[in-house]
Each structure stands twice: as C-alpha cells, then as structure tokens.
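Sample intake sheet
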Amino acid sequence: MRQTDCVIIGGGIAGLQAAIQLGRYNHDVLVLDSNQGRSTICKCYHNILGWPDGVSGAELRRLGKQHAEKYGVSFLQDKVVSLTKNEGRFELGTEKDGKYSAATVFLATGLVDNLPSIENLAPCLGKSIYVCPDCDGYEISEKKTVVLGNGNTGANMAAMLTYWSDNIIYINHGKTQIDGSAKEAIDNHNIPLITEPVSKVILDQDENLKGFMLESGQIIEAERGFTGFSGNKLNYELAKQAGVSLNEKKHVIVNPRTKETNIEGIWAGGDLIAHSEQTTIAMGDGSQAAIWIHKRLMGEGPPKD
C-alpha cells in the first residue's frame, strides 16, 4: 500500500491548483484522476485572468499537470471507489485495485453536466455553445442564440440571456411542460418557443455553429447556443461514504476559511462545494485548502476562530 502525505481525488482545476501548492511545500502528493468533470468538456474558457483569447479545459489541465509534476507530484488515472478513515489515516481503494494510505485528503471530484447525446454538440462546448451564463453570457452579445434545454430550466436560461441579446429562441428539447414564472418570463421577453427534439447540431467546415436540426428536418439557424438542462450530477458519493456532511443539494459543506470538512483531515473544493461553479473560484479553493493541509501536516490543528 502506497503511503502519502496527501491524496487529491480529482485532477480538474481545483485539484491541480492544490497539487501545485502542496508540491511547492515539498509534500508527497498523489493525484488520482478519473478524467471527468466540467473542465474535460470545455473547449474554451474566456473569463480567466491571463488568457485574453481564451484557453481550453484540456490545455489548462495539461499545463496544470505539467506544473505540478515539476514539484514532484505524482499522477495516476484511476477512479477512487472507497474512502475510509482508520487510526488517523485515510485508506483509499480504486477501480484498478490500487490501495493507498494518506495523512490528508482533498476531494475535488466535481460534477458531470447533464447534456443530451446529440451529434456535433461536444465540439461546440465552450466555443459556440455554452453551459454557464456567468462565464459566457458575454459571448452571445447581440447574436442570434438558441437555448437548447428542457422545461422550466431552459426557459429560465433563455430569459436570463436576454441581458446580452434580444434575439433568443428556446428549443424545448425534452418537451417538458413550461409553467409558472418560467412561462411568464419567456412570454414577457417574447422568446419564440419550439417544442421538438434536436437531432443534430449543424456546423460549417471550420466547426463553427450554423444551426440546429430538429427531428422533423427543419433547421433553426443560430450564431451561438446555450444549454439549459437540470440534473447535473455532483460526484458526492465518496464524501458521503467517508461521513462528510452534505447540504440539501448534495454539495459538501466546508469551513469557509480552510475548506476542511466536518471529517478532520478531509478538505474539499471546486464544483463539489457550494459556489458559483467558476474555474477561477475552483483555483482559489485548491490553493486555500492546500495551505491548511500543509499546516495540518506540520502539526497545526484547525483554526480556533
């Protein structure tokens, strides 16, 4: 069984930033990554300091891994399936039958977006079709934009996006009924509603978005797109297994100052905890948690105030 100072579960943005910080403290750090989460699908982040022309999730992950390895951090692609505390240390088991022991653990397992399986959707994510209005609402400014969603979730997304463009169309792909305040919102903003599934995203030869083909064969032209589906899946199972406290939406509850959970020795950050699901905030979570993990490894207890 390999023993380490810290195992980081998840090699996304929060996990990588924690790995870099802990590596600079010269701790023995292992990152176990199953290569999922939002950063694996985004083709371009546009709102990150230092990247005025944008950067893909894949590139950020590549550079982050390279950066952490410079400080001796180890990486393995595997999925952690068990996490228990035994005599003050944490024991972890993986799908590939790996067994690890760590003095501390950082949970950065993130979430998986609920997106339909539609031809040509994946190449557009973060490039011309977006999932987060706080990140990329700006990208649709005054452009014809289709919201591909379901029911009230998609309707509310469409109404929100009128802040940036008054040329919004909502395709209710899942055909769930729209009612209440969501129905009022799209009516008040005069948003055209199409209740029919999309069969294909239409691209030009450079993989730029041209439109959405409905099941009937009709094509709805668009310059930009947004998704609006409920049901994103938080990867909280390991946290729950270890006895970590969750809120009503299954986000991990942490000390806002340290990012430590109710289980002493387990920290969490990124999309797994409750915040606005921003890459830059995930970076901050990773750094903040790593600083307090270092303090613990050096014998310092939790803050007294």
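Comment: Residues 121 and 225 are 10 Å apart (CA to CA). The chain has two domains: 2-113+232-297, 122-228.
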